[in-house]
Design brief:
By secondary structure, this protein is of the alpha/beta class. The model has no long low-confidence stretch (mean pLDDT 96). The chain is globular. The protein folds into 2 domains: 162 residues, Aspartate Aminotransferase, domain 1 (Alpha-Beta Complex); 252 residues, Type I PLP-dependent aspartate aminotransferase-like (Major domain) (Aspartate Aminotransferase, domain 2), CATH 3.40.640. It contains 15 helices and 17 strands. A 7-stranded mixed sheet has the order 4-12-11-10-7-5-6, with helices on both faces. It binds pyridoxal-5'-phosphate. Pyridoxal-5'-phosphate (PLP) binds next to helix 5.
Length: 433
């Protein structure tokens, strides 16, 4: 009988080189991968095929909200898969309805659409903007420089970074970038064709830059005044990572930064993914009530979107976050990590230039020329430093050439955060001795 699923690599089962060879021969080389072959994980730790343990402060790029191998996720998957995995969106089922209700409760009055990824959730927001402006001939979406909105064709047009666009021109029409955190620039950039403005609450991929409270409130006023949709990409900074459900809620929670406007702030559309499924693929977008029925029957869809299985997992994660007070944990552990990193920035100014971020979304901006960094062949300082930390048993996520991100699970324990800081301190001490 012909085998359809290939057998494990022969002789040296699970051996790193054999697995890497499978990739080199058979997987499109669109990612620059690190030289690590992972096998299993538990909580904040992952193990490679040789059994080496890594503290995972990268969280699979802000995805593994409950860490690795969480029994509640395994149970939800098993229980729901026995009942119903998929039915298509021709029919109703309880998990999708309950998840939509839970998200609406966390964000504000409106409705949700379910898909499978962040890029796809943003595609839904672009279509919402087009539908919104269509009858007046408006179609343009303004986005921010240094933003990231995914790798789809419209996603790279929306993304404010040249490197994602290069080689894929011409760009999808109708996207223009404006400087981030610059209200006047947004004002001046409007054209008669503008339908919406889309920003991240905290820019992630370009290196953890939070929006200023007055920028968010100012964009809200501008959008109201000019009849534009204010859209937010909460794919990375969402799902309690900052201590609040959404990054913008955390940014606006300081009452001194506004006068009651902050509590009432809502975007008109919001995309979610990453931590929403804790590693099981699910994306979603929320639309504020006045616009919630714009995408009527037949206008948008997804075969897999909002399957019973994906929604059951997402519901289970929300339940665990609430029962175990993980939003509070993210806030507390984030503050602990950040103050530890700020201490290291004072101790090692030759290595760290600045520490930024909120909760468990932290960025370490490296000094222009970190001394004694091994691995001249790696392109950037951030990936060379990430490699050095890998050797010491710590996973972090580079952002651009100069920034390392920490996006750990919301379940992170104090001892684990302290271990991470100690590994970083050790590595930096050796670089600078
Ligand atoms: C990761 C990310 C995306 C893209 O999500 P995918 O699931 O990879 O399509 C979009 N926006 C932001 C802010 C992200 O961080």
């Amino acid at each position: 009988m012909n085998e359809i699923v290939p057998s494990r690599p022969p002789i040296l089962r699970n051996e790193a080189a054999a697995i890497q060879a499978l990739f080199h021969e058979n997987v499109v080389p669109s990612y620059g991968r690190f030289d690590i072959v992972l096998d299993h994980g538990s909580g904040a730790y992952v193990y490679d095929v040789a059994g080496k343990r890594y503290l995972d402060l990268g969280g699979g790029i802000a995805v593994t909200a409950l860490g690795h191998g969480h029994p509640a996720i395994a149970e939800a998957l098993l229980e729901q898969s026995r009942k119903l995995i998929h039915v298509s969106n021709f029919y109703y089922h309880e998990p999708q309805g309950r998840l939509a209700k839970a998200l609406v409760k966390l964000i504000g009055p409106g409705k949700c659409f379910f898909c499978n990824s962040g890029g796809e959730a943003n595609e839904g927001l672009y279509k919402l903007a087009r539908k919104f402006g269509h009858d007046e001939g408006r179609f343009e979406v303004l986005t921010a420089s240094n933003s990231f909105h995914g790798r789809t064709l419209a996603g790279i047009a929306a993304t404010g970074q040249e490197k994602v666009k290069k080689g894929f021109e011409p760009m999808v029409a109708g996207f223009r970038q404006i400087p981030f955190n610059d209200l006047e620039a947004a004002h001046n950039a409007l054209s008669p064709a503008t339908a919406a403005i889309l920003i991240e609450g905290i820019q992630g991929e370009s290196g953890v830059t939070p929006a200023k409270p007055e920028y968010l409130l100012g964009l809200r006023r501008l959008c109201d005044e000019k009849k534009l949709l204010l859209l937010m990409d909460g794919v990375q900074d969402g799902h309690f990572r900052t201590g609040r459900f959404q990054g913008f809620q955390r940014i606006l929670e300081d009452p001194a930064s506004s006068n009651g406007q902050a509590a009432a702030f809502l975007p008109d559309g919001l995309s979610m993914a990453k931590s929403l499924g804790g590693g099981f693929p699910i994306g979603a977008f929320w639309v504020r009530a006045p616009y919630a029925d714009l995408l009527g029957p037949g206008t948008h869809g997804s075969t897999f979107g909002g399957s019973p299985l994906a929604c059951a997992v997402a519901l289970k994660i929300l339940e665990v976050v609430e029962c175990q007070k993980l939003a509070e944990n993210a806030r507390g552990m984030g503050a602990f990590l950040k103050s530890g990193l700020e201490r290291l920035a004072r101790e090692f100014p030759q290595v760290i230039q600045e520490v930024r971020g909120l909760g468990l979304m932290l960025g370490i901006e490296l000094a222009p020329a970190v001394p004694n960094l091994p691995g001249e062949n790696a392109k950037t300082q951030s990936s060379r430093l990430a490699n050095l930390l890998h050797q010491a048993g710590l996973l972090t996520i580079p952002a651009g050439g100069q920034i390392l991100r920490l996006l750990p699970p919301l379940t992170l324990q104090r001892s684990e955060a302290a271990e991470g800081l100690a590994i970083i301190e050790n590595a930096f001490a050796r670089l600078t001795q």
